[in-house]
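Sync notes, pocket subgroup
Present: LS, DG
LS reminded everyone that the earlier model was apo-only. Rerun requested with coenzyme A included. Inputs:
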Amino acid sequence: MTALTEHSVTDMEQRHVTDVAELENIIFSSPWSEKSLAECVGGKNTLFLVCEKDGRTVGYVGCYTVCDDAAITNVAVHPDHRRQGIAKALVKALISRASERGCAQVSLEVRVSNASAIALYEKLGFRSVGIRRGFYSKPREDALIMIYEI
Ligand SMILES: CC(C)(COP(=O)(O)OP(=O)(O)OC[C@H]1O[C@@H](n2cnc3c(N)ncnc32)[C@H](O)[C@@H]1OP(=O)(O)O)[C@@H](O)C(=O)NCCC(=O)NCCS
């Protein structure tokens, strides 16, 4: 399905953190805590962006910026709001913001079985550069390392 509307992407603020933590709990087997997410708001070396619909946070992306690398740590969209271009808008916005911070690349790990996320990143121009064996737990699985050169 093609997105018919532009999605509004903004910086994560403290008011978004409860919704984001709820999504982490729904979606991931090792969710980030509300406290960890709250610590990322406005951080010098963190960049978290959200997409809101009708006053609820429906998607988010986050990264650490270390030297010239923006290392993505979180990407997710609420199951009821998928295939509307929200993740694409979030990751594109993150690439643009990372570039403004002087980053030369955006990197991430993704479960080798996560076909939907891999398709998203490939569509955005990320390329696979390696495998981290046994990177994930719950369940244990290899990670594909992907890089986007800005
Ligand atoms: C992966 C995820 C973030 C994608 O979010 P989304 O908002 O539905 O993605 P988008 O609508 O922006 O999709 C953009 C493109 O990615 C690809 N894509 C996304 N979901 C896909 C799916 N289920 N199957 C195949 N391709 C998919 C498509 O190319 C899509 O473009 P199209 O809809 O025009 O075909 C979402 O499925 C999710 O939250 N999954 C669970 C959490 C997760 O796996 N996060 C990634 C951790 S590394």
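DG: The chain has one domain: 9-149.
LS: The pocket of coenzyme A is lined by residues 1-2, 27, 75-77, 82-88, 110, 114, 116-117, 119-120, 123 (CB under 6 Å).
Action: DG to write up.
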